[in-house]
Write a structure and sequence with these properties.
The structure holds 2 protein chains of 2 kinds.
Chain A lengths: L2 E5 L3 E2 L5 E8 L9 E7 L6 E7 L4 E3 L7 E6 L4 E6 L8 E8 L8 E2 L3 E5 L2
Parallel strand pairs in A: 2-11
Antiparallel strand pairs in A: 1-3, 3-8, 4-5, 4-9, 5-6, 7-8, 9-10, 9-11
Chain B lengths: L8 E4 L5 E6 L11 E6 L6 E4 L13 E6 L2 E6 L8 E7 L8 E2 L3 E5 L1
Parallel strand pairs in B: 1-9
Antiparallel strand pairs in B: 2-6, 3-4, 3-7, 5-6, 7-8, 7-9
Classes of the chains: A mainly beta, B mainly beta.
Amino acid sequence: QITLKESGPTLVKPTQTLTLTCTFSGFSLSTSGVGVGWIRQPPGKALEWLALIYWDDDKRYSPSLKSRLTITKDTSKNQVVLTMTNMDPVDTATYYCAHIPDSYGQPDYWGQGTLVTVSS
Amino acid sequence: QSALTQPASVSGSPGQSITISCTGTSSDVGGYNYVSWYQQHPGKAPKLMIYEVSNRPSGVSNRFSGSKSGNTASLTISGLQAEDEADYYCSSYTSSSTLEVFGGGTKLTVL
């Protein structure tokens, strides 16, 4: 049974750096082909890909946010960490992590999401 | 602006069938059979309903079906039920970007 859970601050100030952790179970990020991705959803808006990391440490980033994002994995802890610098109120959103079963990048299992509000 | 185009809203009465379209290009929907559909109820995480254009994960009702023609994928829900009222998103593998793409979402209202 695959489960994922996001954790991190619920409120950050503008210009601060956001660090989110995805802790998962039911699979290993050392298994060939597997990945974990981060997707966000501003209130009332559509889903938006942020970043994805594969078992072999292949990392993919949203072209529009690449300069602000870093994704890393700790296979021994079953965790994936996303950092986003220079947070702005427009970054207010629910942030999801998701299990990626193969190199075609389609999420199958999702975490419950965590709402991050950017406000001073 | 999302890379994949979906209608903003669709509606139907209980028992009816509806279809939601998802239009992309030959670099994504039209070029690969890696299209997924997700259902999202308010305040909940997306749930995978269809993968690889037309496959249903275990536990998903057979009232949900997917297909593709050219650059357009479609999700059909037959025998509409009140519980089907939700937002639906399509997703596709793409060769033109480093990350996959989502549609803008479609709000399904069951009248």
